[in-house]
Amino acid sequence: MKELQTEGLTFYIVDVFAEYRYSGNQLAVVISGNRLSDEEMQLIAKEMNFSETSFITSVENYDVRIFTPKVELPFAGHPTIGTAYVLQQEFIKSKTKTLSLNLKIGQIAILFKYKGEITSEIWMEHKEPTFNGFFAPDLVADVLNLNESDIDGRFRIQGVSTGVPTIIVPLKSLDAVKRAKIDQEKYYALIENTQAKTILIFCPETYD
Questions:
Q1: GO CC terms for this protein (predicted)?
Q2: What is the average pLDDT score of the chain?
Q3: Which domains does the chain have, with CATH numbers?
Q4: Measured between alpha carbons, how far is 170 from 124 in angstroms, rounded to an integer?
Q5: How far apart are the C-alpha atoms of 152 and 174, rounded to whole Å?
Q6: Which residues have C-beta within 8 Å of that of residue 147, sequence separation ≥ 6?
Q7: Positions marked catalytic
Q8: Could you read off the pLDDT of 113-125 as tens digits, one per residue?
């Protein structure tokens, strides 16, 4: 057991992208100030075991760090929005229109919209995208346990980043999206020498 100097820390559990309670993407937001070391933040994120945990290291300056259970991230979408909501609700406590979070990647602007006194929408500005390597459709299809014919050949498979490099994979149908299942061994072989480490699949069809 490793002792952590966490007595008196305040944290919030936030459901981001949720239409109702206890849904959406879970996020832990910890008000840490400068009390925690990098190691302690990583251990807390591991203990929380959500996809991400954010740490507000300065409430006054909106300084934020984001950790998965394994590593620190320079940026991630739902932790940015969820953390901004906690700052607006618990510390700013007014109908502010914008604020800028200071993340590892730099400043990210947040826009709030309201219905009466209730925060109704939160928007986030992304950094300009950067584009890197292309990927062979047959290799990516193999990683996803799909046929190469499931890949939408109108678009190339490419690494894109607005903070976290991601392999963007176009599929032809919603059925292909549902059938996609990552082969872990082939996935790690694919990303071994690439900047992008995550995969995002999409298709032109939507759910009813």
A1: cytoplasm
A2: 93
A3: 10-124 (3.10.310.10), 130-202 (3.10.310.10)
A4: 24
A5: 12
A6: 141
A7: 52
A8: 999 989 999 999 9
